[in-house]
Amino acid sequence: MKIIIVGCGKVGYALCQQLNDEGHDITLIDKNADRLQPVVDNLDIQVMTGNGTSFLVQQEAGIENTDLLIAVTNEDEINLITCLIAKKAGNNCRTIARVRNPQYFNEIEYLKAAIGISSSINPEYAAAHEIARLIQVPDAIDIDSFARGRVDLLRIAIPENSPYDNMKVFEFSKKFNREVLICILEHEHEISIPNGSSILHAGDTISVILPRKKIASFCNALQMSAVRDIKNVMIAGGGTTAYYLAEILAKSGISVKLIEKDRDRSRFLSLGLPKAQIINADATVHENLLEEGLPQMDAFVALTTQDETNIFLSLYADKVAPKCKKITKISKMAQDEIIEELPIGSIISARNTTTEYILKYVRSLTNSYGSNVEALYRLMDNQVEALEFHVKETGPVTGTPLFELQLKSNLLICCIVRGKQIITPSGRDTIELGDTVIVVTTNKGLQDISDILAE
Amino acid sequence: MNYSIILYILGWVLNLQGVFMLPPCLVGLIYKEYHDALVYVIISVCCTVVGILLRRMKSKNSTFYAREGFVAVALSWIILSMTGAIPFVLNGDIPSYVDALFEIISGYTTTGSSILTNVEGLSHANLFFRSFSHWIGGMGVLVFILAILPMTGGSTMNLLKAESPGPSVGKLVPKMRQTAFILYTIYFVMTIITIIFLLFGGMPLFESICHAFGAAGTGGFGIKNDSIASYSPYLQTVLTVSMFLFGVNFTFFYYILIRRVKDAFKMEEVRWYVGIYVMAVILLMSNLLYHGYAFGESLLHVTFQVASIMTTTGYATTDFNLWPEFSRGLMVCLMFIGACAGSTGGGIKVSRIMIYLKQVGKELMQQIHPRRVHVLKMDGKEIPHATAHSCNVLLMTYVVVFIASYLLISLDGFDTTTNFTAIAATLNNIGPGLNMVGATGNFSAFSNFSKFVLMFDMLAGRLEIIPMVLLFYPSTWKK
Predict the structure, then answer these.
(1) Does domain A231-348 have CATH number 2.60.40.420?
(2) Which of B66, B176, B384 sits opposite A44 (nearest CB)?
(3) In this predicted complex, what is the ipTM?
């Protein structure tokens, strides 16, 4: 597919990298030649210096033959106009705009219709949603949802002295009436797709797929730290993500304490978030956090603008409130082993959420016929992909019991959603027309449900 | 330094060399030169085997930085030349290995300087391989590897940068492989067209192919002792046009292919290229007419010779060594300018000359109006400071290499004009110089030491100096 990306910031670069890896033809446009230089040196894509909003520049980039334009500059207005022009100049070119101003974002449905944008992404809003989900489902380190939120992928660490230490995967599964399937096993940074005879160890991280309704009972059965309903949340930093998050949490009846350093910003937040308590204080001063009752909080979210500050805030929260659930926003640093080893809870990055959203969109565009990637998650530092396919036609995979299918290695069918039924598949189950199938694999670039078969 | 990835690339280069040996072998079979054909087959097999072994050793680490790019390119060209020289020695046509190496480097770098005194004495297979090496070297070997080799992992741009001539390397389309594919298609089709036009003028097929290869790669190896002089005016004109077109930036042809004709003719470099060509022709014609040369014949020779020297081909229809002094001087000047960036020609390149002149203009303007803001532009776009800077550094390096080479070959004791133009002709990949190394002379009189200096110059000229110089720069090889 031919894709034009306008704006070479963090998201623009990450998109170029990922989409290029998936074999698309990419032209990147940015005003600033210096920013393009590292791209030219490292990636096999075409770059252009110029104003992406200009009709002539878009023409030079070949907008007539382009399938998709992604506008991810810093300015919402520029993104919107760029998409508007691409829509008119291109031949049926789809457009995605990044829109982060809450005001425009509230009116996004009108804008989509008026300007003709195919899709829009608000990174802060998407990140806030992600955080809210993590808060509402306790104890999971990470959670991604499939099948329109009916099935979740949970990432949980097996605690020390757990009865599941040294247990084989199939025994584990038996304990839960075969309703729980372990799809990813991380043992000392080795990531694998386990089979029945793999052995679990304390300290391993497992990812399991299960229906949302069963999450609470599963966590209880796992005898992890007692499941508590989260009622009090403290947010450090009052940026846009915090605003969205406070709004979402307040709606579900959770009491929110938001700490913001800037006085004017605090007043603005207080005006917009009547249900939340806005505290005008510096979150980096520990006394302030203690005074506002951090040790009694159920969850703590570090959302200041600086990664370093967020990490230290979460480390402090881990010290004074070990049972409190922590979520840390990281925007600049790479999410590598060093950061993941720190006791700072779940890590959220607006860049990753945005990139994943757009990748998902591109994938479903690429597969606009036949079976379809409905959702895509990149897990474990991009080493594993979880994909959701909708089976739109019969093919080699349908109607055959799973144990008869020759699947690719390192690939697992985790869940089949058939109508209202959620099936944790065993060898005797089959994939049928109309099913939604969730697959976890370390093979990248799966495009179609039939790609799960070994060649 | 990641040696394993360099060996892997060299393995591919050797495999390609194995393939390159097959066409001359076929020619040998056609002309019943069985001994030559056998030699080519044996070397082809050896190259292929060694190449496959080298490729087998590929390690997991496929990281590829600028340093590896430069070294891989320089070593690839050296290894191509070293293996390419073997057939000439084994066939007995050029008994000395150093001479054979000189000849094949001259071939691959599209220089066209020869140490042979009697070209017509060579076998058909060898003649073909000489011309074929021009055709391969014209576009570049690694660009070809990029076109066929799936190397998405590392930053392969570094390879293209190191091998492609010109101040800045642009891709025509987002993917490197497609860009390389488009370039090769244009190159291939234009070569075929040249061959057809030559056949149409009554040139035999073998000669047409050899001459078309020489013109396409802007090389200049002839297969006759008097180069092109004995052919009809029609054939000479075909080659004039052909050489001229192969000296144009290939982006020009790509624009025409995708029907952006307006953009094509707006290209500043192409306009300068045509302008310089026309000016040179006018100046030479006036000078020759003043000295009593006949108009029609002079026009034919001058248009041919200017195209030949400017595109750094080096074919000759007449011995311009015998022209009046001003004309000789002008020809030497043209040697330095060279062809467009992004073409198969050598020299400093028209676009760099533009950048130099524009910088001089800007600097002069700055003296008169110190506060005036003046932005260097090309094709309506700002020339990035880094580009201008690297052009300037290249010129400095070029001058240093030139002076050093000049001093080194002066040891042989020939006259200044010979030495100066010998370096100009090899460093700019042209072929013939003046006096002893003029169109009717050759390089056989130089000592082996001087030949090595000239070989370095040819490779340096083809790879735009820096990669070759880096090979001798100690910190390139440090861990």
Answers:
(1) no
(2) B176
(3) 0.72
